[in-house]
């Protein structure tokens, strides 16, 4: 892991957003599923996952099998994590509102949940029960009535037991053994088996990300997520072993994951560099972590905490850890970050799995303008307008002048006809 001075550190990161070949392949899949429905979904599942789907939807027996095969301590952990996540997101609930003026005009906002949401959970070579919890629970708290989950089958044609148990624990029972761009297409357009949805949430590979980008507008999406990333801002009080472990917790995700340490202490930088080399050597996913650290890992030495905070805000990281003596002293100066972890015991995996905060976070600098997945992502808002006669008479001429300024005479006359009638 290389050490650089701040003068030689770039906060710009170019992330591959898909080749023309990949985009063309995604468009072909979307069009085929739109036209052929289940036939195309089954064909692409056999082509990409090497699975012949006899039953696309997960059966009750498959749920029972998963419950038999999951370790009791894992199921207990899933239950407790789900309770923490539900408690945290329940505090985000907002209510419809209305205000009344003395003139009799009433204005307000009607807040309603989305009707049907599609949840994509990565699968195949890896399994992410936590993704089920993080995406399904905010939707349920918002009041979404229908959640359809899609996930790629494993080599045995089944869904990972942990994923199924997580879904069972939160009450998601409409699950389809389909992944990739074909799953996004099925959720968008609908097939003979799967009804279309209003919004698609959840992470996936480059083909899933490209498919979500293409269908946005026909359905809503949460975000187009890039590779995972972590930034640790540390001073001389930080434990180098802790810092190295947390950097590697993201590096093991993906060869394109980014792990960055920003520190005022060169001695800490050197100690973390040594710790990373030692710890990565014994990781089960060391090839992935080593590639990530080699290509996207860096330690940036800054001259002051103010300079470090500036670097952090320009990076706008997905995960930010403040491994400093007084982390709360700097929270107010953090402008851009998806999730902020304070102090030595708030390791990034605490938020990923258990604390209750959401781990679906903005990546690649998008924390400058976007937020973690939350209850509001599953709500839609309608404006309420009940204008009184008194206010129309008082402000009608102003409304007409604005309409005519924009060259929209019919707009102006819609007001004028009322004013003339009411003043008779």
UniProtKB/TrEMBL annotation:
One MF term in the entry's GO annotations: NAD binding
Entries under Pfam families matching the protein: Histidinol_dh
Keyword Phosphoprotein: no
Binding site for substrate: 228, 250, 253, 319, 352, 406, 411
GO biological process, one term: L-histidine biosynthetic process
Family in the record: Belongs to the histidinol dehydrogenase family.
Protein name: Histidinol dehydrogenase
Organism: Aneurinibacillus migulanus
